[in-house]
Amino acid sequence: MARPHIEPYVELNDPYRAFKVRGFRGCQYKTLSLDVDTGACTLKIRFPGGYRRSPGLSYSDCEIFVLNGTIEAGDALWREGHYCFVPAGVALPAIHVPQGAEALLMFNDAEPNFEESGDSHDRALREAFTSLNGYEDLPWFGLGRVQPSVATGCLSKLLRQDPLTHATTFLYCMVPQFAQDNISYHDCAEESYHIWGTSWMMQFGELPTGGYFWRPPYINHGAFRCRFGTIALGRTDSKLHNYFHYNPWSNPWENLQRAAGQGYRQRPLLYQWEMTDGHNHPHGPADFEEPGYADAASVARLHR
Amino acid sequence: MARPHIEPFVELNEPFLKFDVGGFKGSHYKVLSLDTDTGACSLKVRFDGGYKRKPGLHYSDLEVFVLNGEIKVGDQVWREGHYAMVPAGYALGAISVPKGAEALLYFNDSEPHFEESGDSHELTLKEAFKSLNSYEDMPWGPGNLVTPSVATGCLIKVLHYDPLTEALSFLYCMTPEFAQDNISYHDSAEESYHIWGTSWMMQFGELPTGGYFWRPAYINHGAFRCKLGTIAFGRTDSKLHNYFHYNPWTNPKQNLLRAAAQVYRQRPLLYQWQASDGHNHPHGPPDFQYPGYYEKNPNIRALHGHFGGESDERDSRDAPMKLPKKKAKAKK
Amino acid sequence: MAKARAKAKAKRVQDLKPPRAADAAAWFKENIALQKKRYAAIVKEQNGLERDRQKWYANFLRIIQTKGFNANGDLRVKIPANLIPKKPKGRSRVVF
Asked: Which has the closest alpha carbon to B3: B171, B147, B309, B212?
């Protein structure tokens, strides 16, 4: 498996390390999870006061979420709650951090890398660039974004969704006295960082402020409790579907088979086609709306 | 005004006082707010370990919200998050608190008192008794129960709803990073106790854990912020309607007139009837569905400043809020 | 006699409450006085917040022109500058 199951990991207990990679010298980092095949990773990064970087790009899709402090990126000010999706090859302007800042930094395709450049790469998907303040620019969404749904009291703000894979980056929160009595698993990997607050899952116990997980697909998690409220940044690497059940002892293989069993019952023709014909399409079945989708980075990284 | 505007009051900074009233000896209290006409009050009460009381009743509706500890009431155990609505005259079972507990106690009709009795009063509305754990027995619901609505991120559990006055008792919470950029006021008094968390209002600043307010009708509050989340127990004394606006400097009289202007514009026949005919109905217009509601319901009388019963025979008192007198016609 | 009449007229338990016992009456009197003090302390404390409050109001009036005013739920409406209220003369009051 590309990234191991890291759950729970409370980063606050671990020291920062010096970041000796071009473009990040002077910063400190902690690795929250790392894809040992590609180098894709999720980092917590501390920019020291006075940090500067010339304009430049990365050959990986990159996401950043500002935890505290202010980052000047060209004319823009990224403050607490700011989120950016920077597609591979899109050049960011010069960066300056006058008084220090902490952020989550996610490289989706490769290890941390940086190349000085005033211009974006000509193959960069510029239109996918996203920059907004997750705290201020969006309202909470209270209803189930996904069906079957979490219980009322788990709210979210959608920061970005990949149109091909439905990989999603979102802020979510649990209200005080949140409770959900089921066991959940998904077809996707799921990742979370607790910006503030403690929540509890029946398998893993309490996850406090600074708590993190990278959870591969089909792994049981829940029931859920949150006593005082929690706010967290979450991501999935593909479509999130909630498979709810109540058997604490099922394993990922059984969970995947159960998911397939749902496909068999609920989408019979699709299931039959997949079982009989699918193996002749190593790059995925034809999609008249998205020809050539298998080459997209977000898809390729799931099927490599 | 029956209860003054108490906002904000952070009870954690204040000491408990010894509760020397029959039925409560062996407990301590803090008054959160007190109706100086009727004695109706909101209290935080600490029952010391070993507190015991025999079965008995009150001549007032009573609401209880358990903050911590365990309270044995007859066969039931009331734990953290437990809510009870005990109608006047309803005999509660024997109470014992083996290890101490804290609770919010709301006497809605008169000052704290107690009468030993194994049986409920014959006139008690037994069916109105309610007892549940608000943390465990109910899901959260969206705050748009009332429209115009609060922003998403303020959620609610309705624990008690009075069908006549639409007075509410409810648990509510705000999510981390909750924000609502408007100023609100209501036709009702509003009350809240912060069980946990800090929230901010543009008029009053931050209200932390243990923070409380009793806010009479038509008083501006908001904009609103909550950084890390809050859970609170709230009540209104009548229907909650959100009047939203953006003028920080209006006063309650202006706000009331604006509410009346909305009735004038939106319910013209009702307004005309009230303006022309209403004063001939000191005990409220007739309601074919609830005949005699004024006589039957002390809450309604209290809302209109009329205190029946033998403790107070006043039946006409100044309106809770004096409206601006009509200006004399300007001299030409 | 008066009591019997009251009982015959009564529709609810509240109307039959016996007169206040001495302990309850003493409690009531004491707490009316304490609340009066508390109210005065709150008014004083809130008057002390006035400088911060004026900043909060100014920030609010800025937000409703840029990000918008929460008219209903999450629906935000940007308020044009000519509709922004002006601070009236004199001290503003928040506790009534």
From this structure: B212
